Amino acid sequence: MSLWSRFATNRAAVAGLIVLIVVIIIAILAPVMFPKGPWAMVQRPFLAPFGTDGLPLGTDTLGRDVMAGLIYGARVSLLVGLVSTVMALLIGVPLGAVAGFYGGWVDEIAMRFTEFFQTIPNFALAIVLVAILEPSLTSITISIAIVSWPPVARLVRAEVMSVTRREYVDAARLAGLSNLHILTRQVLPNTVSPIIVMASLMVATAILLESSLSFLGLGDPNIMSWGYQIGAARTVIRSAWWLSFFPGVAIVLTVLALNLIGEGLNDALNPHLTRKGKS
Amino acid sequence: MAIAGTILGRLLKAALTLFAIAVLNFFLIHAAPGDPAAVLAGEAGAADEQMIADLRAQFGLDQPLYVQLYRYVGNILTLDLGYSFRQGAPVLDLILERLPATLILTLTAFWISLLAGVALGVAASARVGKFTDSLITGTALLFYATPLYWAALMAVLVFSVQLGWLPGFGYETVGSGYGGFDRAIDILKHLILPALTLGLFFMAVYMRMTRASMLEVAQQDFVKTARAKGLAPSVIRRRHILRNALLPVVTLAGLQAGQLVGGAVLTETVFAWPGIGRLMFESLAARDYNTILGVFLVSALMVIIFNIITDIVYRLIDPRIGQKA
User: Fold this and answer.
1) Interface of B with A in 214-233 (CB under 8 A)
2) Model's pTM, two decimal places?
3) Range A29-33 contact pairs with CB under 8 angstroms and sequence separation of 24 or more
4) What's the CATH fold of domain A3-27+68-271?
5) Residue of A113, A114, A128, A203 best to disrupt the B interface, most CBs of B under 10 A
6) ipTM score
7) Where are the transmembrane segments (chain A) (predicted)?
């Protein structure tokens, strides 16, 4: 069976993929759908949803269109989720690969370093980093990458260790190939599938982290995001529930979609690992 | 003997970790834009020129970097976390005053999530592929994707604003004059929503882990033997499978405890719970870096202590561990 047909047998994963594609299209088309941008005041504040033509989700505390904010918010979520995950992979994969491949004291040092970062409370470190570097899209992305790479390093290390013990790697050594060649051409390609699965779940976690930072007021002040919308509406939850409700639904849907895709990829890429009863 | 050695090793490692975090804090202060003394004093003009000059002298900002580092780390290791000019009090005092509330919240959330997660995981694994399993697994997936702070806000909306069942704000009823038992009940009522919403995400994590672990152990030979002996399925599940399946869950719970402390920042912010998480949130707006770094250090310390406890519990549950090493 091809990869796609194996993935397609998991209906939840396909549903997740469809949701994700819709969110991506919305994010791309945001400027076309709302040329005035998410910050424009369009009506009087606190308009309830479903009541006014052209404002399906009502207006916020400053008379801004909640729908426009929601659509623009998709952009920052996806962007930060994707870029921070790529950055975390760029730290975690080389570190884990070198540790697993060389072993010995290299492994010892790399793993102590990784363990240190795993001990520090993730979210607290992200808060401290963003607060100190001043909130901006760059500092948020970097901070999320810094707190997200340790599991990648551990995974890659374990995979590389098990692959390096196989016979074909010994054969490559006997053939006189350099360590670098063996690691990058013979070993790492065989560790790709678990990394892909982990990466899809990391994007989901990164989106949650970004929204939590923005909720606390640590978002980029120039960019509309779902977390900011909820954070700004926190104190008026009693009178204007819709301001925090809809952005939250958007986050749940997107994160859920990514998690479902991750599980689907896991089943499709590692069919022999799929446990009985894990439907 | 073995346990004493372990504890000693763990304490040594904990001290090293703490030292490393102190060093990290030092470099973070220097990474912040602007004069470190001004950074520590809080940017928005909370400190006058004299204070900043004093700070400069105290930190020896005219000294080479390694001398500054030595002084800073020395201060932290003697539990001098600096002074909050914003709040007009030493950071350590501020934190100690708020720590009990955070401990109550995180420990309650931890136990709720662990017990509920394991119970649901066992229930799901007992009915694999059936409706109950799908329901539990689906709910866990949903909780897993829900931001902590949003779950908290929605809980306030439903249970506090709409239904009026539980208070959605604060630690106890202000000015109620409750004492003794009444006060404990009052605090407990205030605790329910924050602890539940903080625990939801972690409950989902433990549930998934327990279910997977139960299914894995159920495949092993000794379970087949127990079945062949004619033991009742419920006895096998409880005595044979669950005992073994719990080990990876305990490990995970220890690791996840750190995230619980981080999550408390969000929960305490929503519920105005007077803990160190709320203190951190207030310090963010005030750019009170000394307090932010202090809370960060203390939360890391909490994680380290949590991990040591997990390690000991783990060794008590399974004496095999530690013998190999």
Assistant:
1) 215-216, 219
2) 0.88
3) A30/A71, A30/A72, A30/A74, A30/A75, A33/A68, A33/A71
4) MetI-like fold (1.10.3720)
5) A128
6) 0.87
7) 12-34, 76-102, 123-147, 195-219, 240-261
